[in-house]
């Protein structure tokens, strides 16, 4: 395993983060290893700044853990711990002695005399204020130690630990999985020494690299894992030789597994920034809990200052898990040239006919023959797949693009069935449950769209709308999920946001867009999410799930109507007191003032009015009486409205069941089962 | 007063004359102040006798189809509220719940009467029953407001809209709700809003050659400092107007108003300067109308060159849709659009960097305005507005400051007056 990587220690002894590893000058055209690529392009992978890298790390680890658990149909239990490590502690961990600075002016955070004077003056002032406050007996928080000495802003180091109950990893594979760009639990079939341009296409899948490329700054990664029926825990400590894309193993051993633990635990130390990304990370965990109500999360943040510690538990609410995605074959119109090459390399089929028939969906034998005939005289059904030249592959690709394959519009049933087995949506039930569990809304409506095809990739949209709830701010709260992963960044341009803000007329649902607490949940599940931009955080605004949003409409309106029915009486009665109080206030005042002075006749209703006023003075009309009468009226109106509603919406046709009633004349033939609370009469 | 103004000017003139005549465009074609004064005097006197008698709805035979409110005395308002309450009581006791008959103030119920040159309310009435989910809230608020006004009448005091709102914040929730119901109540009773003894906070200010009495105190608006006198919220306090001004200058914005007040523009050309700082409130509109009616002076408006400037102009002139029920008292006929007009942008060579592109919303508002009757009646306005929508450029009054802060008072306005350049 450990070949040659040890000669140059990958842990660079200096703290400075040289973002671009020095390139050897002799070869201009150098093939970059994937890890190297990411080390140089951290922003692509979501590591643009320490805060975001902490977030991305947590995100990667949590998602890998969930995948791992789901792949063996186990209800996920994920524990995430973020531990803050002070700088000196970190230095000692990487074996670096805290050196005294000799030439102070050399450092970035060197204080010029002027700055120091300023700071000292400020501190003196602060102390003065504090002294004053102390004199006055006020409680003040300790002024934080001057920040200037911390260096590089607020960023410090964090140990992120993520523990799951997933599949675990085979002992021998661990170094390769982590050292080489395999994902944690899914082995991505991916040729690593291929053309470099490939990377921007599949980086999406090779997530662990991100953890790595950042992790190289600091300490090696630690992995413990145990698989089912495995008596030991594999423990591995390694880091990566980013230039050669091979693992560099420190420790790789088997340890006792006393309590039969199964799963994986990954521990890495990265530079991060908790203060600025705290809310993002917590937000992420919460959204994750919404979309995966079948998982249990425990999130902990530990730091030196105990008051900053956070522990949040998201409990499991259901045992229903989405189906495990099946690996399916590719739809011919969605493959690109590289994929065809890869498939050819990997296929076990010998000839072209079998290859076409078995590696793709929707190509039957006869159709494959027709395709081969169409390809030209160079091709034959019996020709060996592996012998295809690159020109020939291009020809196949061209044909795939042009040829007509059964489209969704055609043979919908079979195609979709095959296509959508590879999708694993959360399910309307789970989405609904998640929303209820985390937000406690007053009302939820969910919708699960039927599957569609976008550029050859199947996708399903699930959506939910909630109104009210706790911890929800007023206005629109949009929760976006792609393949059951929350998206938090770059929301402005996202299709969901655009739709929710501009294309939906909320008032037609009697929802006030600015005052009601609206939650919008949209989850898109697809084999390929049409992300725009490299940030992988938003979906382009050109797909047609507006249609889905519109379909939500009827459901919400119906819900709203039902709610209105329920609330009518309540809202009518709400103002009863105000109204009767006001009316009675006017007439009793009038009665008083009119009694004191003689009024001249002015209105035609004068007599009636006078009569009413007399009754008021005589306490025949009181506020209570008004209230009673009005309440009765409301009762009446409510009843009428209810009848109307019932006749309009119709009685729902439920299956009728025969009921058995005792005949009046029949002889009493029964046994009474007595209990202190009830009697159970059993007829014979 | 005039002498003081001249002195002031003389002080400025010697040092600024030569350089400024080069700097400030069009300054050279400006005639002397006395000549300009002569021009305005001519205009002012010709415009006087024109408004002898104002038409009313009854004159047009429209009074049956349209609804208009009148000034009512406090006891009248009080007894009107009482009879409404008693009617409601009887209806409740009869087991029918209760409802109010509220004249609709929606856009569909408005009518522009060209003969009157203002918007009036048609006679559509909406029944607002209590026992209905969609109207229950409004009805409750209406009842409460009725009670509060009843109390005001009994005590004979004035309160502001804000006061009214705070008497029952929990029910009203936000002030727009109590405000809009207040207008409804005016309509139900059929009186002006000021008859309800509810006023808005002071917003408008006036400065210049006018003397009037406010609750018995004589106010000379030339001696009110630069800020001017706040326009009293209830117009019945105001009386005994006297003025030697030649015209009234209506300014959209506070900034331009301040410039003119500080430069004592009203001493150079005797005038009264009024602003409501944006959309005019009821008090300012009432005050302007009163000035126009009693002093018989022409009104010249200086507003931004954007759709909203014109809209504000229209509110002074034809009334707002929201308060069309009282347009008879609130509108001032025959307001001239002095500036800044879209054609001025090129005429006065306002540089590109001071013009703003119109937003989509602006353009839409502009196009909607073109459909409005009060714009259509004046072909010159239509022309200007069409130009604005076509060039898609707008400019604020402050755009003139690009030639110097005082360009507005030193050159632009005098030149406009000299050329009688208003529509």
From TrEMBL, chain A:
One of its GO terms (cellular component) is nucleus. ATP binds at residues 64, 164, 536. Gene3D superfamilies: 1.10.8.50, 3.30.230.10, Histidine kinase-like ATPase, C-terminal domain. Residues 421-566 form the DNA topoisomerase VI subunit B transducer domain. Residues 1-34 are annotated as: Disordered. SUPFAM superfamilies: ATPase domain of HSP90 chaperone/DNA topoisomerase II/histidine kinase, Ribosomal protein S5 domain 2-like, S13-like H2TH domain. One of its GO terms (molecular function) is identical protein binding. InterPro entries: HATPase_C_sf (IPR036890), Ribosomal_Su5_D2-typ_SF (IPR020568), Ribosomal_uS13-like_H2TH (IPR010979), Ribsml_uS5_D2-typ_fold_subgr (IPR014721), TopoVI_B (IPR005734), TopoVI_B_transducer (IPR015320). It catalyses: ATP-dependent breakage, passage and rejoining of double-stranded DNA. It holds the Pfam family Topo-VIb_trans. The keyword S-adenosyl-L-methionine does not apply. Its main location: nucleus. The keyword DNA-binding applies. It is found in: Nucleus. It is an enzyme of class 5 (isomerase). Its EC number is 5.6.2.2. Keywords: ATP-binding, DNA-binding, Isomerase, Nucleotide-binding, Nucleus, Topoisomerase. Transmembrane segments: none annotated. One of its GO terms (biological process) is DNA topological change. Homodimer. Heterotetramer of two TOP6A and two TOP6B subunits. Component of the DNA topoisomerase VI involved in chromatin organization and progression of endoreduplication cycles. Relaxes both positive and negative superturns and exhibits a strong decatenase activity. The B subunit binds ATP. Belongs to the TOP6B family. This is DNA topoisomerase 6 subunit B. It comes from Fagus sylvatica.
Automatic annotation (TrEMBL), chain B:
Keywords: DNA-binding, Isomerase, Magnesium, Metal-binding, Nucleotide-binding, Nucleus, Topoisomerase. It holds the Pfam family TP6A_N. It is found in: Nucleus. SUPFAM superfamilies: DNA topoisomerase IV, alpha subunit. Residues 1-11 have a biased composition (Basic residues). HAMAP family: Top6A (MF_00132). Mg(2+) binds at residues 252, 304. InterPro entries: Spo11/TopoVI_A, Spo11/TopoVI_A_N, Spo11/TopoVI_A_sf, TopoVI_A, TOPRIM_Topo6A/Spo11, WH-like_DNA-bd_sf. The active site is at residue 166. Component of the DNA topoisomerase VI involved in chromatin organization and progression of endoreduplication cycles. Relaxes both positive and negative superturns and exhibits a strong decatenase activity. Its main location: nucleus. CDD domains: TOPRIM_TopoIIB_SPO (cd00223). Residues 247-417 form the Topoisomerase 6 subunit A/Spo11 TOPRIM domain. One of its GO terms (cellular component) is nuclear chromosome. Its cofactor is Mg(2+). Homodimer. Heterotetramer of two TOP6A and two TOP6B subunits. This is DNA topoisomerase 6 subunit A. Belongs to the TOP6A family. Residues 1-25 are annotated as: Disordered. Residues 137-198 form the Spo11/DNA topoisomerase VI subunit A N-terminal domain. It catalyses: ATP-dependent breakage, passage and rejoining of double-stranded DNA. GO terms for molecular function: ATP binding; DNA binding; DNA topoisomerase type II (double strand cut, ATP-hydrolyzing) activity; magnesium ion binding. Its EC number is 5.6.2.2. GO terms for biological process: DNA topological change; meiotic DNA double-strand break formation; meiotic DNA double-strand break processing; reciprocal meiotic recombination.
């Amino acid at each position: 395993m450990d070949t040659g990587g040890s000669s140059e220690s990958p842990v660079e002894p200096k703290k400075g983060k040289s973002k671009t590893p020095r390139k050897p000058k002799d070869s201009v055209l150098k093939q970059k290893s994937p890890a190297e690529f990411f080390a140089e392009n951290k922003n692509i992978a979501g590591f643009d700044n320490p805060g975001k890298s902490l977030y991305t790390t947590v995100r990667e680890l949590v998602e890998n853990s969930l995948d791992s658990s789901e792949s063996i149909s186990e209800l996920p239990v994920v524990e995430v711990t973020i531990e803050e490590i002070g700088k000196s502690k970190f230095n000692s961990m990487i074996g670096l002695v805290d050196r005294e600075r000799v030439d102070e002016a050399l450092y970035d955070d060197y204080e010029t005399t002027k700055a120091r004077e300023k700071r000292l003056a400020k501190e003196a002032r602060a102390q003065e204020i504090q002294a004053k406050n102390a004199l006055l007996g006020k409680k003040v928080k300790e002024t934080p130690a001057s920040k200037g000495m911390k260096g590089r802003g607020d960023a410090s180091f964090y140990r992120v630990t993520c523990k799951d109950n997933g599949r675990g990893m085979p002992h021998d594979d661990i170094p390769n999985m982590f050292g080489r760009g395999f994902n944690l639990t899914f082995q991505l079939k991916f040729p690593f020494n291929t053309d470099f341009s490939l990377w921007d296409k599949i980086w999406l899948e090779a997530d662990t690299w991100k953890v790595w490329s950042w992790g190289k700054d600091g300490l090696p990664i630690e992995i413990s894992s145990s698989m089912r029926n495995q008596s030991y825990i594999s423990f591995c400590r390694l880091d990566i030789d980013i230039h050669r894309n091979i693992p560099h193993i420190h420790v790789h051993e088997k340890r006792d597994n006393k309590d039969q633990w199964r799963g994986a635990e990954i521990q890495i130390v990265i530079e991060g920034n908790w203060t600025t990304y705290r809310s993002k990370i917590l937000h992420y965990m919460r959204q994750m809990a919404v979309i995966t109500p079948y998982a249990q999360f425990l999130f902990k943040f530990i730091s030196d200052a105990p008051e900053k510690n956070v522990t949040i538990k998201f409990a499991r609410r259901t045992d229903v898990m989405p189906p495990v995605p099946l690996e399916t074959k590719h739809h011919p119109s969605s493959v690109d040239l590289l994929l065809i090459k890869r498939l050819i390399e990997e296929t076990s089929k010998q000839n072209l006919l079998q290859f076409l028939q078995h590696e793709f969906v929707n190509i039957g034998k006869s159709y494959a023959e027709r395709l081969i005939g169409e390809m030209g005289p160079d091709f034959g059904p019996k020709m060996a797949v592996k012998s295809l030249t690159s020109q020939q592959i291009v020809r196949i690709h061209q044909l795939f693009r042009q040829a007509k394959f059964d489209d969704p519009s055609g043979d919908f049933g079979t195609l979709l069935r095959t296509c959508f087995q590879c999708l694993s949506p959360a399910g309307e039930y789970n989405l609904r449950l998640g929303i209820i569990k985390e937000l406690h809304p007053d009302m939820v409506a969910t919708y699960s769209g039927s599957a569609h095809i976008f550029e050859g990739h199947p996708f399903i949209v699930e959506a939910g709308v909630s109104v009210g709830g706790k911890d929800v701010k007023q206005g629109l709260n949009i929760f976006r999920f792609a393949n059951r992963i929350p998206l938090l960044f770059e929301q402005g341009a996202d299709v969901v946001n655009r739709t929710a803000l501009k294309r939906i007329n909320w008032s037609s649902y009697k929802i006030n867009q600015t005052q009601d607490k609206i939650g919008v949940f949209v989850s898109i599940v697809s084999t390929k999410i049409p992300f725009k931009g490299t940030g992988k955080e938003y979906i382009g605004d050109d797909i047609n799930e507006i249609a889905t949003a519109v379909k939500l409409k009827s459901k919400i309106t119906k819900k709203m109507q039902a709610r209105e029915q329920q609330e009518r009486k309540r809202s009518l009665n709400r103002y009863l007191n105000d109204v009767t109080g006001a009316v009675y206030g006017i007439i009793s005042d009038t009665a008083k003032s009119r009694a004191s002075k003689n009024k001249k006749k002015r209105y035609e209703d004068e007599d009636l009015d006078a009569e009413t006023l007399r009754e008021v003075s005589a306490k025949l009309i009181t506020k209570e009486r008004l209230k009673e009468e009005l309440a009765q009226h409301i009762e009446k109106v409510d009843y009428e409205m209810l009848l109307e509603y019932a006749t309009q919406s119709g009685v729902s046709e439920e299956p009728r069941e025969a009921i058995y009633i005792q005949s009046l004349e029949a002889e009493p033939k029964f046994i009474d089962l007595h209990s202190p609370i009830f009697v159970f009469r059993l007829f014979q | 007063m005039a002498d003081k103004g001249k002195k002031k000017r003389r002080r400025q003139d010697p040092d600024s004359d030569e350089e400024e005549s080069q700097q400030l465009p069009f300054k050279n074609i400006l005639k002397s102040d006395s000549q300009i004064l002569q021009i305005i005097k001519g205009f002012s006197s010709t415009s006087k006798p024109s408004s002898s008698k104002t038409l009313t709805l009854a004159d047009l035979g429209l009074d049956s189809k349209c609804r208009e409110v009148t000034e009512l005395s406090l006891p009248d308002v009080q007894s009107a509220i009482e009879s409404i309450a008693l009617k409601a009581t009887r209806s409740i006791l009869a087991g029918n719940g209760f409802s109010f008959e509220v004249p609709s103030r929606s856009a569909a119920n408005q009518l522009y009467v060209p003969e009157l040159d203002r918007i009036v309310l048609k006679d559509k009435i909406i029944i607002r029953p209590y026992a209905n989910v969609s109207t229950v809230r409004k009805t409750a608020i209406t009842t409460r407001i009725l009670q509060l006004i009843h109390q005001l009448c009994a005590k004979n005091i004035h309160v502001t809209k804000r006061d009214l709102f705070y008497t029952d914040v929990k029910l009203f929730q936000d002030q727009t709700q109590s405000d809009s119901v207040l207008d409804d109540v005016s309509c139900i009773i059929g009186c002006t809003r000021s008859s309800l003894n509810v006023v808005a906070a002071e917003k408008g200010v006036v400065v210049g050659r006018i003397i009037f009495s406010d609750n018995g105190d004589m106010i000379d608006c030339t001696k009110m400092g630069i800020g001017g006198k706040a326009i009293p919220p209830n117009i019945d306090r105001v009386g005994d107007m006297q003025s030697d001004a030649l015209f009234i200058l209506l300014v959209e914005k506070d900034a331009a108003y301040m410039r003119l007040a500080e430069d004592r523009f009203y001493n150079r050309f005797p005038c009264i300067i009024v602003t409501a700082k944006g959309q005019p409130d009821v008090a300012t509109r009432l005050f302007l109308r009163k000035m126009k009616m009693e002093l018989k002076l022409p009104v010249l408006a200086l507003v931004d060159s954007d759709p909203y400037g014109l809209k504000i102009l229209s509110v002074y002139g034809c009334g707002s849709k929201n308060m069309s029920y009282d347009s008879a008292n609130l509108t001032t006929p025959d307001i001239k659009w002095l500036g800044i007009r879209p054609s001025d942008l090129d005429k006065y060579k306002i540089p590109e960097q001071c013009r703003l592109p119109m937003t989509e919303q602006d353009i839409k508002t502009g196009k909607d305005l073109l459909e409005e009757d009060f714009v259509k009646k004046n072909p010159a306005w239509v022309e200007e507005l069409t130009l604005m929508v076509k060039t898609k450029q707008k400019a604020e009054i402050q755009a003139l400051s690009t030639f110097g802060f005082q360009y507005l008072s030193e050159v632009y306005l005098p030149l406009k007056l000299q050329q009688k350049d208003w529509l």
